[in-house]
């Protein structure tokens, strides 16, 4: 006997019919509520997919308002310095379909945005994204296909914003220890940890 779901018919039989509101709440444009959510969000996750390597999800964060709403169907995400893997950007070149999840600390609901993305280096746009005198190298401009508020159940179950549930970082291995174990190239984990915060802060923008 197989315990794997093989098609949507079996899946619907397992879960039942979806709530009528699940479709009714979906917008094709950013209304005042979506705009307000984006303006208050300092963090998002960006899902992309490569035809060869499959799905990928990348975190993006900055001060609230770092994502620019260009009009009621477009938004722009600055691409700040990272490790130059540029996985999201490479994926977008091959497959423009993306998904974004906006998160606001202390708020149980999230905002989901799906659409098609391009990589822009338009000078006028990048000038609006300057922080500490530095422009992002590019911006991810998304034309929205659908946008909707996602219910609070997942954050309620996780109790994500409860400070009493926050983990003491010392209960996990340090970043240096993890990298040393993963890369096995002789990395001095103690030296890496000692320099990590200052190195990060020097290269945030």
From TrEMBL:
InterPro entries noted in UniProt: Pyridox_Oxase_FMN-dep, Pyridox_Oxase_N, Split_barrel_FMN-bd
Domain Pyridoxamine 5'-phosphate oxidase N-terminal intervals: 30-151
SUPFAM superfamilies registered for this protein in UniProt: FMN-binding split barrel (SSF50475)
Pfam families in UniProt: PNPOx_N (PF01243)
Top-level taxon in the UniProt lineage: Bacteria
PANTHER family found in the cross-reference section: FAD-BINDING, PUTATIVE (AFU_ORTHOLOGUE AFUA_6G07600)-RELATED
This protein's name: Pyridoxamine 5'-phosphate oxidase family protein
Organism this protein belongs to: Kiloniella laminariae
């Amino acid at each position: 006997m197989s315990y794997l779901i093989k098609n949507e018919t079996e899946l619907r039989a397992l879960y039942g019919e979806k709530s009528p509101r699940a479709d009714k709440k979906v917008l094709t444009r950013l209304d005042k509520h979506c705009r307000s959510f984006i303006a208050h969000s300092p963090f998002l996750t960006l899902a992309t997919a490569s035809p060869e390597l499959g799905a990928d999800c990348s975190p993006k964060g900055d001060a609230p308002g770092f994502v620019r709403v260009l009009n009621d169907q477009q938004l722009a995400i600055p691409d700040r310095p990272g490790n130059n893997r540029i996985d999201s950007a490479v994926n977008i070149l091959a497959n423009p379909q993306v998904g974004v999840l906006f998160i606001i600390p202390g708020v149980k609901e999230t905002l989901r945005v799906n659409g098609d993305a391009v990589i822009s280096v338009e000078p006028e746009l990048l000038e609006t994204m300057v922080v500490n005198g530095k422009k992002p190298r590019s911006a991810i401009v998304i034309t929205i296909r659908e946008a909707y508020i996602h219910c609070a159940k997942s954050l309620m179950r996780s109790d994500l914003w409860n400070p009493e549930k926050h983990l003491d970082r010392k209960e996990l291995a340090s970043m240096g220890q993890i990298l040393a174990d993963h890369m096995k190239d002789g990395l001095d984990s103690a030296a890496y940890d000692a320099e990590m915060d200052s190195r990060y802060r020097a290269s945030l923008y």
